[in-house]
């Protein structure tokens, strides 16, 4: 309830994480959903309209996900 922004890795599917993301959405908290690129096809269709950051689980991918998170956070904070 006190979080300003919620960041959640949603794949592999975890009921607790989905519940918490749903709760965050009910509270109108901005969310960033993380999904490994190799699991892109596992993204539930009803979450595709939300802010999703696809990442590559590698050393090189770490820098890209960090840049992506920074970009999304700046966009949220400027809203």
Describe the fold and architecture:
With 79 residues, this protein is an alpha/beta fold. Helices cover 39% and strands 18% of the residues. It contains 2 helices and 3 strands. The protein has helices at 15-26, 59-77, and strands at residues 6-9, 31-36, 52-55. A 3-stranded parallel β-sheet has the order 1-2-3, sandwiched between helices. α1 (15-26) links the parallel β1 (6-9) and β2. It starts with 5 loop residues before the first strand and ends with a helix.
What is the count of helical runs?
2
What is the overall shape?
Answer: globular
Uncertain runs: none
Euclidean distance between termini CA atoms: 19 Å
- Helix fraction by DSSP (H/I, runs of at least 4): 25-40%
**Coarse structural class:** alpha/beta
Strand coverage percent: 15-25%
């Amino acid at each position: 309830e006190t979080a300003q922004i919620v960041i959640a890795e949603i794949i592999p599917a975890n009921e607790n994480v989905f519940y918490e993301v749903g709760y965050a959405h009910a509270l109108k908290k901005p969310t960033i959903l993380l999904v490994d690129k190799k699991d892109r096809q596992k993204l539930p269709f009803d979450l595709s309209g939300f802010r999703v950051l696809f990442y590559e689980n590698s050393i090189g991918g770490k820098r890209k996900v960090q840049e992506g998170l920074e970009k999304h956070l700046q966009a949220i904070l400027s809203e």
